[in-house]
Amino acid sequence: MVKAFSRRTVLVTGAGVTAGLALPGVAHASRTASTGFTLNAETLDGGEQITSLTVETARIGPIDPASLTTGTFSVHARATSPIDTGGQDIGYDLDRPVTAGRLDRHGDIVLELSHAEGQTGGNTLGYLDGKARNVRLDLVYTIKQNAPIRLRHGQLITLTGFTQGRLTNPEADAFTYHTSRSGMKYRLYSPASRHGRRPLIVWLHGGGEGASLPDDYYDNETTLRANRGALGFATRQAQSIFDGAYVVVPQSTSAWMDDGPRFAPLIHEIIRDVIRTRPVDPGRVLVAGCSNGGYMSLKMTTVYPRTFAASVPICGVVTARKPGGPPLIPDAELTAISTPTWLVASRDDDTVDPQANTVHAHELIPRSTVTLYDHVSWNGHQFPGHWSWIYVARNDPSTGGTHVWQWMARQHR
After folding, report:
1. Which letter, b or e, does each residue of 368-393 get, where b requires 16 or more Cβ atoms within 10 Å of its Cβ?
2. Ramachandran area for residue 2 (φ above 0: left; ψ -120 to 50: alpha; else beta)
3. Strand pairing partners for 92?
């Protein structure tokens, strides 16, 4: 058994396979080999998890799938924070149950791992309470082979070493990396080639997905891995509804609510750059965001009243951050919003008071629409009431038979 490198190290040095293939003499009925493996991740509603490992075995020869059982390999995972946690333990060190072993179309072995919403031990992010930030954990996965695997012609194979490679998440990986001239990082999804100019959806993340500059931590990753807010708009269903849309995801250097007026022009610069360099319809720029990003979605429509065709603020904040302080968005600014607005929240949100924020904003924004849920529940799992962005990521809010994505797609400035 060979200990794997951390993901962070592998990304820097490369994921090279330890390729030593030892072939005993012809008289022996078995042989040994070393190989590499990748971490396969999916962003669930509750955050990204490692759901399987792909062991690079295609080069060894055609494997008999009947020789693969849940006990053929065992998997151990260790996760640590990349920055100082102030004593908080956000990592883990445990065995990951293997629920299935199979071959993919390339002939590589795929080890399916137990995972589910709310299940610990597979998460790739950790939340630091003292910093109110999600950070991407350094992951070290170790594979141990417990029984030989068999090639189709009968030869037995023992894999003596496993080298950890890169982490793959096809949905997140589809977003390219960029940095604006002002230094704000962002990710960009580009639709499949279509004729004509396409809409642009701006997704503004929540407070936990901003950078932590005092820790030199600005990763441009957590915005796509903490939840499905941005990813939802890049799904096949959404892209069909929008007839192909660009999705841009700026990452704050702290939290949007720390200084919305300062962040607004930085976001607007990114929007202008995307419009300038891509075939975007400037009359179909749409903004949506959750929590901190819900506030920032509203703020953008007050600062740039002629930029956006529609706005979808989710569990956003408009009231004062501290008792007795000024409101983040004054009533006069809410009343002056002319952008078509659809607000979303859950009544059991105990992080941001929906009545004082979402309902209050709806009552003041002319011709706005609001969807209020009693709870946040999806596929049988109940989430915290603050997480109402899950519904927008699934195109669930509707009014008069029209769902929120279809409504957004119809808006033109």
Report:
1. bbbbbbeebebeeeebebbbbbbbbb
2. beta
3. 79
Supply the pLDDT for residue 376: 98
CA distance to 252, 333, 338, 399, per residue, from 310 (Å): 21, 17, 9, 16
Regions of the chain where pLDDT drops below 70: 1-30
Are 102 and 138 contacting, i.e. CB atoms less than 8 angstroms apart? no
- In angstroms, the CA 387 to CA 394 distance is 12
Task: Give the pLDDT of residue 230.
Answer: 98
Which of 300, 8, 1 shows the shortest CA–CA distance to 161? 1
* Rounded-to-integer distance, Cα 110 and Cα 108, Å: 6
Calculate helix-pair angle for 260-277, 292-303, nearest 10 degrees.
Answer: 70
* Tally of CB atoms within 10 A around 62: 12
* 361-389: pLDDT as tens digits: 999 999 999 999 999 999 999 999 999 99
Secondary structure of 221-269 in the HEC alphabet?
CHHHHCCCCCHHHHCHHHHHHCCCCEEEEECCCCCHHHCHHHHHHHHHH
Report d(CA 338, CA 187) in Å as an integer: 28
> How far apart (Å, rounded) are the C-alpha atoms in residues 70 and 102?
10
Q: List residues bridging with 145 in a β-sheet.
A: 73
Distances in whole angstroms, Cα of residue 173 to Cα of each of 121, 181, 189: 22, 23, 9
pLDDT tens digits along 96-148? 999 999 999 999 999 999 999 999 999 999 999 999 999 999 999 999 999 99
- Pairwise CA distance, residues 141 & 163, whole Å: 9
Type of residue numbered 371: T
Q: Please state the φ and ψ torsions of residue 304, each to the nearest 5 degrees.
A: -125, 75
Q: What is the pLDDT of residues 270-293, one digit of tens each?
A: 999 999 999 999 999 999 999 999
Nearest to 107 by CA among 58, 157, 159, 40: 58
- CA-nearest of 288, 278, 326, 282 to 306 is 282
Report the distance separating Cα 133 and Cα 209, nearest Å. Answer: 6
Whether this model's pTM surpasses 0.90:
yes
